[in-house]
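Sorry, explain these tokens?

***
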Amino acid sequence: MEKKINNESVIPLYYQLKEIIKENIENGDWLPGDKIPSEYQLISEYNISRNTVKKALDDLVQDGMLNRIQGKGTFVSKPKLEQSLTGFYSFSKVLRDKGMNPKDIIISLESKQANSRIARKLQIEENSEVIELRRLRCANEEPIILETSYLPKEKVINLTKEKLEKNSLYDILELEYGLIVTKAKEIFEPVLIGNFESQHLNVNEGLPALLLERIAYEANGLPIEFCSSIVRGDRCRFYTELI
């Protein structure tokens, strides 16, 4: 590392170190999977305290740029999956386009009565029957998204786990039920991984994440799906292009 820390700067020391490490990663000096220098090496290199080094590394782990492996050290994380928000997209297709293998693990599929919030999103009567589909969306066997979908039961009679394990939900809606999703509205909100999500996503509780809520519409303008997803912030990011 050639860049030095300026002890006279108003920028906190930990933040300066954080930026130096980020620069090494972004410049390709350190590649995904590379082990970075130990805390002791960073302390010696920059003549700073252990607390300063720990704070910088903790922030980068929290940001998803680094990951710690107990007993082995700290490593550069895999690059995040990027997805444009400029048009309708399929998670499975995004992964295939990136040369990755998508896999969905069905956690549960059951009939429930719609509470007021779900009913409002789907524009149906409160206490109407809906199908709740909870699944884990994976990339190359790595869990990325914990997703819960709600669909009006009367529109997806006989939807089964077996069908969902063989085909995408939207393909089933179109081919079996004649329901074509033509548009969707999505809302993003930053959240922290909770206990339930951490168990399924196999990450620590408190990790930054995105809450993604989507309402998918048929051609007639009626909602067919309300979906609430917890997206790992250390593995995904979304972007848009402004013209």
